[in-house]
Amino acid sequence: MNTTLMDHATDTIAVGSKSFATAAKLFDPLTRRSVLMLYAWCRHCDDVIDGQELGFYASPVDNAQAEQRLEMLKNQTQRAWEGGEMSEPAFAAFQEVALGHNIPLQLAYDHLDGFAMDVRETRYETFDDTLQYCYRVAGVVGLMMARVMGVRDEAVLDRACDLGLAFQLTNIARDIVEDARVGRCYLPARWLDEEGIPADALDSAAMRPQLARLAYRLVAEAEPYYASAREGLAGLPLRSAWAIASAHGVYREIGIKVSAAGPRAWDRRQGTSAFEKSGLLLKGARLALTSRFATQVPRPAGLWQRPR
Q1: Does one domain contain both 37 and 162?
Q2: In this predicted structure, what is the pLDDT of residue 162?
């Protein structure tokens, strides 16, 4: 087993996602390895497109460069999926996961299409448009992660996708101002119009009360997806259910904090403390255990449905 790859993946998640890194420690060793490998590929692709390093600003990338990088990522991802020799750690990691867990290549392509939406400065007119973006950058990650955990039941995969959507809606709410400063907006244009917010004024302090209302709305929209995802815990192995329930709690708590902070939500980056994470890990353990005995509730018909 390649320990160098594991070291690379562990370092990547430790810097790139402190929220998920804590929960990831709860997986059994083999699942944890695959989860971290998949995360390393996702993080690498995102960074390459944005000219970042582990999610932090590094250098500006123009649209032509970004398109070239996107094509390179697609080619490398396909080569990895087909079993070609990989020298780049992120693609070697993806290869191990994709071939070991039969990850459909289309899911990887869908994820890269989410980065393409950023490159092409896609405008999101309606909330459904925003959900399409959320599906590509996070819903498909939920689907791939679930497959790593052994899930093949389509109904459980729906719940995994729902959790990815909820996570991304939370991220969008938390990062509205930060995203605006690099020229990106994932809020539906219709929502902005309703609040009278010009698309080029999202980082304006004068707009914070209106932004707070939209962030509150996003967090509220995430709630039914979080609820649906909880129902999917029963379809996961116990330790995986514990890890996912804990990540569910951590991200949901971030959304709650964004809502509670109102116009001051972007004075600092919202997150959870080590003490709060400890409590959420305990709550996650309880949810994982009780999911073994819970009566399953059908997925609400009104939720956005992933393509099949």
Answers
A1: no
A2: 98
